[in-house]
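Changelog note: in this version the structure field was regenerated for every chain. One regenerated record is shown below for reference.
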Amino acid sequence: MKNRAYDFDLVTDRRNTHSLKWDVADGELPMWVADMDFPTAPEIRAAIKERAEHGVFGYSVIPGSWHDAYRAWWEERHHFKIDRAWLIFCTGVVPAISSVVRKLTTPAEKVLIQTPVYNIFFNSILNNGRQVVESELRYAGGGYEIDFADLEQKLADPQVSLMILCNPHNPIGKIWDRETLARIGALCRKHHVVVLSDEIHCDLTDPGAEYVPFASVSEDCRENSITCVAPTKAFNLAGIQTAAVVAPDPTLRHKVWRGLNTDEVAEPNSFAVEAAVAAFTKGAPWLDELRSYLFQNKKAAAGYIQKNMPRLHVVPSQATYLMWLDCSRQIGSADADEAALFIREETGLVVSSGKQYGRGGEKFLRMNVACPRALLEDGLSRLREGLQRYAEREKRVPERM
C-alpha cells in the first residue's frame, strides 16, 4: 500500500545498526519491543542533519522554541493548554517515571498500577525498593474496563502513595474516556495518592479517535498529577532520548525538577531539542499518514487472524500499534511464556509474552504491527504456522487451522 506523500511500504534493513529490536538471529522476525520499522519523518531527519553539520556538540540548553512546540502541539492536537512553567525536559519517559518513584515515595511504600500494563513499570517500582500493588483491569466481553471497587480499596491503603496511569493503555490499546479519568482523579485526590500519567502513546490513536490528557479533565486531575510525554513513540525517536514532564502544581513540579536533576536526566543531548521541535512543528502530515497506515495494518491483521486463527481473539483497540491477542482458547493449560518461546523456536517470530505485563496477561501475546505491510504479512504467516504446530504438538488442532 502506497501513501500519497510518504512510503511506509519501504522495507529498511535494520540489522547491524545496534538495534535492540533487531539484535536477533538470522531468519528471525522481531515484532516485540515498541519501536517502529519506519524511518522518521523527513522533516525531522533534515533538522538532525542540519544540527550535525554544525560539527560542534557541546553542552546544550533548553530554548524557548522547545516549550513553544510542546504547548502549540498539545493545544492544537489535544485541546489542552499547557503553561510554559509546567514543562520540564527529561531524557526519556522511563527515566522520568523512575525518578518520580524515587522522589515522591519512600522505600517499602506501595505504587499502584493497573495490570496488564507496560512491564517496565514493574522495574521502576521494584528496582527502587518499592512495592507493586496491582489493580487488575476487568476483562469481559473481549474488552477491558476498570474495576473501580478494587481500585478504591487499594488506593485507600495508607501505604499507597503513587499511582502510575497508562493513558492510552499499553498493551491493551484502550483510550480512557473523560468520565473514567475524572473518577480516577477524584479517587486519588480523596485518598492522597499522586497520579503519574504515562501518555507516551497519545499521538498514536486511530484516525478519528482522540486521547484525553489526564491533567485536562478536572482540577483534581490537574493539581494532583504529573504527566510524561514525548515525541519518541509517535515519531520513532527513542534513540534520540527526548521527552518532557508536565507538572501543573508548583510543589509537585519542584519535587520533580529536583528529582530529574539529582538523577542527571534533565539535560538534552545535541539532537534532543531539534528533533522534538521539528516533530511538533513540521511532523503532523507524516504522523497523520502514519496513523492511517497503522490503522490499516491493524485492520488487515485482525482480518487475517479471524479468518486463519479463529481461536484467537484480537482485543479491540483505539490507540498504539500493539495488538493484544487473547490466546486462551488456543494454548489451553499452557501460559504465554511457553507459547511465545515455542513460536520463536519453530518459526523465528518474536512476540511478547503477556505474562510480563502482570496479572491478567497469562494467556495473551503482544504483537507489534508498526512495520511495512510485507513484514506484517510474513509475521502473521509465522504466527499461524507457530500456533498450528503448537496445536499439533498438544493434539488440539483447532477448526480451520
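Spot check on this record: The chain is about 40% helix and 15% strand. The radius of gyration is 21 Å.
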